[in-house]
Amino acid sequence: MYDDRRIAIGAVGAFLLLIGLLLPTYTTDWTSWLYENIEWSLQSNDSGRLMITALSYISWYLMTFLFIYLGGMVLANIFARDHSSLLYQGLFVLIVLGSVYAFNELYNEHYSYLIHLLVLSILLFLQNFIPQQKYFYIMYIVILAFILFSVQWLNLIPGMTKFGFGSDDFAVSIKLADEYLTDHILFNTLSTILFGVFFVIAIIVTTILHLYSKQVMISRQFQEQTQELKETRGALIETNVYKEIHSLVHDLKTPLVTVEGLLSLLAMKIQDTKSQAYFHKINGSIEKMKDMVSEILYEETKRALHVQELINYVVSHISLDDPNIDLKVKVEDDLPMVRVNKIRMSRAISNVVENAILSLQGEGGEVNVRCQESDEGVLITVQDDGMGIDAAYLEDIWEEGFSTKDSSGIGLPFVKNVIHQHGGTVQIESEPQVYTRVDMFIPFQSKEDNKDDSRH
Amino acid sequence: MKKYSLAAFLLFLCVGVMLVNQRTSEGEKMNTWPNLPAPIGEAPMLITSAGQATEGKVFSFITKDLHLEGDYRPRALASDLYDYSTLVIVAGYSPHGLNQTYRSIKEEKKRVHRLLHEAERSSIPTILIHMGGAARDDEITWSIMEESMHHLDYVIGFREMKQKKELVKLADDYDVPVTLVDEMEDLRTPFNSVFR
């Protein structure tokens, strides 16, 4: 897949290069017009016509070299994607200079290499300031066109001839005609001005694009920070709510003790069998409530529990509204008991199951919850065939505050925390658009732990 | 900093090549004939191009300014020479100019060679003008000049030229007087001396 893409990019680059190299073959009418116009300007003693011919000459070479430079850039991109790397820059320079050499050989031309050394030098410098964003190639082409257009005017400055500029056929002819018509005054002046003006435009355009991109980046960062702040505020409110619930639950303990005390008084006063049975049932419920309050208030409160009972408790708290989502639960028979904080552990498992359901929302699919014995413990596996998680995020999802769904990002860290508190491990595996699997391992209750300390 | 290193290297290379080019084209000052001591040619003259560059056309306008009688025929053949008393060859290879004639450089060189032979056979004085200077000192233009030298009676060129030394030495070998000038305007005096 990756190789196919590289081949396609390579073909585009080679095609662009070929267009540049073969352009003179398909534009013979244009070049004839240029040649005839130089002679006509001499014949009619018309320096204005010579100036128009010079503009046309610059445009003709601009088109040719634009294709060659773009082809070179695309080809160099196959081997090195980073435009600031030496490998990319070196390849780009080699391809462009090689193509200019091929162009000169093919058409017996003597186009000055100095122009290209200068264009490449300016381009490699300025490209570091072109923002690597959506419209990078359009911006690159615009700046390249300005640089090519400006630097080529050096070919038409007669004073630069002795340095090696303007050695191609048309440039020599235009300069000779200019010497005859204006004694070099016209082209020494205008070519210098046009070179300077377009060069400054190229610099200004690059600077504007660079500043604009910086501004866009800053406003994007600001948006991200605002969003982060909003999420943190949400999480803080959530934490405060939990704190209030915690203190409310704590306050439940006092009336429960009162009810328990009064019930024991009633049990002593009313001795008939039927009432005693009711008192016993009420007392059992009070004990259960006390256990639950303890588990909510104290993380370390654990009790021995059948896995089936734990899973039933989890499933009873899950609301499944989407008929297209199929929740399948399978618990291996005769699993030994686990020693857990029922409330917290069931909340942790619920979080994982709810995440799986959430990933299927709208599209439907299957969520499988399996419990099986594995190496002195129970392995609870929750698997869904939803959108999956990108490999790049698999490490980050355990971080508090990280979320790919604009949620508070505290669910999975809570799961990890609870499982670790129970001496277990949790692992996640995912393939985007295929599946996500969470494996939670909880060790079985050991003999030393047999003493139930669920009551505080 | 690494990302700017190649750009800086190319810039230095560019400046280096520019300085080398300047030294090569200017070089040491050489003494050549300022003009001919006595006229060798007579009007009318046939001006033709060797290489089909624009220089031929430009030079024909200079001769007009000098009120010298002659015709500019860029593709003149040996058979056209019978009507003229002097042959002026303006050397300069132009790939685009040659494309207009649908001729190859080989055919162009053959045409010039025949013209030179005919001029020598008819004892017509032959003058070679090279007005491209440093901008047109390519190998093909130089080969045209080199191959023509032994047929020539006078050479006028530009001082700013890569093969300046070789040109003077070659002309010396064949006893051909050479005048090298600084700019186009300076061509007029030595060329005038051919006729007046």
TrEMBL record, chain A:
Domain Histidine kinase residue range list: 247-446
Entry GO MF terms: ATP binding; phosphorelay sensor kinase activity
Locations listed in the record: Cell membrane
CDD domains reported in the protein's UniProt record: HisKA
GO CC, alphabetical: plasma membrane
Pfam families: HATPase_c, HisKA
Enzyme class: transferase
Bilayer topology term: Multi-pass membrane protein
Catalysis: reaction(s): ATP + protein L-histidine = ADP + protein N-phospho-L-histidine
EC number, as in UniProt: 2.7.13.3
Record's keyword terms, sorted: ATP-binding, Cell membrane, Kinase, Membrane, Nucleotide-binding, Phosphoprotein, Transferase, Transmembrane, Transmembrane helix, Two-component regulatory system
Residue ranges of the TM segments: 7-26, 58-79, 86-104, 110-130, 137-157, 185-212
Protein name as annotated: histidine kinase
Provenance organism: Pontibacillus marinus BH030004 = DSM 16465
UniProtKB/TrEMBL annotation, chain B:
Start and end residues of each DUF6305 domain: 42-195
A Pfam family that the UniProt record links to this protein: DUF6305
Lineage top rank: taxon: Bacteria
This protein's UniProt keywords: Signal
InterPro entries per the UniProt record, alphabetical: DUF6305
Keyword Signal: yes
Signal sequence interval, chain numbering: 1-19
Protein name: DUF6305 domain-containing protein
Organism of derivation: Pontibacillus marinus BH030004 = DSM 16465
